[in-house]
Amino acid sequence: MYLYQYNGKIIDFSVLFLQPSFSAATMxxxxxxxxxxxxxxxxAEPVTVFNDELRQLIKDMxxxxxxxxxxxxxxxxxxxxxxxxxxxxxxxxxxxLVVINPQVEILxxxxxxxxxxxxxxxxxxxxxxxxxxxxxxAQDEHGKEYSIEADDLLAICVQHEIDHLEGKLFVDYLxxxxxxxxRSKLDKLHRQKV
Length: 194
Fold this sequence. Notes:
- The protein is of the alpha+beta class.
- It is built from 3 helices and 9 strands.
- The longest helix has 18 residues, at 176-193.
C-alpha cells in the first residue's frame, strides 16, 4: 500500500498502479486556474504518449484534487492542455479513476438538475441540468482502453470535467446575469489577493 498523509488526511494511492519506487515526496501540489482566467477556455489536445512523466502528472493531479478538496480535476484547470482527468467520488477518497482521452455516450434522455461547484470557481454552487446515465470510454495512465457505465454523481462529474477539456465551465450553463455576477466577485477577490 502507498499511504500518504497530508494535512491530517491519509490517502491511499496504491490503486493507481504506481511503480514500486514511488514515494510521496515526489508529488507536488499544482496551482489551480480560477475563472475568469482565459486559459480555462483552451481546448485540450489528445494524449499520445503514455510515460513516467504522464504518470507523475496524474499523481500530482490526484494530490492537488484531494488537497483542494474536490472530486474531479481536469488537466486544463492546472494549465496543462491535454485530455486528462482525475476523479474520486467516494466518501473515503479511495476509489480514484484516471480518465484520459475520454469519449461519452449518453444512454438516456433522462436529465437531472444538481448543484455543481468547481475548483476553478471557488465558493460558488449552482444548479446544472445533465444526463443521468452515460457510457465513458477512455484510457488509463498506461494507455489501456476501458469502458464503464456511470450514473448519478459519477456521470455528473465526468461530464463536468470533460467540459473543462472542451474549454467550458459550469458557469456557462447559467444565465449571463449570474455568470457576470460570479465573474465580478471573483475578479474583485483576485485583485484583493494581489
